[in-house]
Amino acid sequence: MNILVVNDDGIESEGLKMLVKACAHFGQVYVSAPKYQQSAQSHAMTLTEYLEIEEVKDIIGALKAIKVTGSPVDCVRAGMSIFDAEFDLIVSGINDGSNLGTDILYSGTVAAAMEGHLYHVPAIAFSAPTLDLPYLYDEVIKLLDEMIESELYNNTALLNINFPKPSFAKPLGTKITKQGRRVYESDLVKSDKPNLYHQSFSIIRYQEEADTDVTAYEEGYVSITPLMIEQTDFKKIKAILKNE
User: Fold this and answer.
1) Is 197 exposed, middle or buried (0-12, 13-18, 19+ CB in 10 A)?
2) Are 33 and 90 in contact (CB under 8 A)?
């Protein structure tokens, strides 16, 4: 297989390096990652500025690698354009931090995988609450093996995979889940410097349904959530047409 590995934490991320080594078990790995940290960039792309793209030679397991002064989506587009390869799979991550529920609206990790779908390439996004999970590398290899063997990533935009909270010594298993409702409340906090603020976040808790990614995370399971691009509210269309 030809596998394109991308992320939003940047080319120096330990999660990226771990993912590259895991993917190298299954084919030729190409890397296209941001030069700088690009978390929470969602599906942003660079339109009015130049992208600086440099070759990187020291990523173990990668056949070729580049770093890009742009967003995760820019990195996918750059990799698809620059590398002389037809990609069979795009794998994004491993993100240092979970991407559960409505996190996917902000996640550069998930957006990069979603961009792959726009190029008709199957995609997987990996996220973990911390990269210090002792089982993480072995579990990623195990999951990749199972998903590649079964081609589980076909016929959906992407698979969003999250490892459970770190209080579990290892996952209790794997669950196919739906997107939950992890919503953030934010506040602007003024700094000591004039006109400078930072955002403070706290999670608003919901009563989660049993089959969501958030519940799986809390109960010690790896969640695999198939996602799609389609956002049309078909129920609303039917209601409007019914009332015409």
Assistant:
1) exposed
2) no
In a domain, 187, yes or no: no
9 labelled as ligand-binding? yes
Is 8 among the annotated ligand-binding positions? Answer: yes
Query: Is 129 strand, coil or helix?
Result: coil
> Which residues have C-beta within 8 Å of that of residue 31, sequence separation ≥ 6?
4, 5, 6, 11, 16, 20, 56, 59, 62, 64, 65, 66, 79
Exposure on the CB side of residue 43, measured as CA atoms within 13 A: 10
Q: Distance between CA atoms of 37 and 42, rounded to whole angstroms?
A: 13
Q: What is the distance between the terminal CA atoms of the chain, rounded to a whole angstrom?
A: 52
Our count of domains for the chain comes to 1
pLDDT for residue 79? 96
Give pLDDT, residue 201. 73
Residue 41 has what pLDDT? 80
Mean pLDDT in runs of 10 for the chain (244 residues)? 96 97 97 92 88 94 96 96 95 95 92 93 97 96 96 94 96 96 80 86 76 95 95 91 85
88 is in an annotated binding site: no
Q: Are 156 and 113 in contact (CB under 8 A)?
A: no
Residue 136 lies in a domain: yes
* Contact status, residue 100 vs residue 180, Cβ threshold 8 Å: yes
In this prediction the pTM is: 0.91
Residue 82's domain comprises 2-179+209-243
In a domain, 90, yes or no: yes
pLDDT at 140: 97
Judge whether 7 is annotated as a binding position: no
Residue 82 forms part of a structural domain? yes
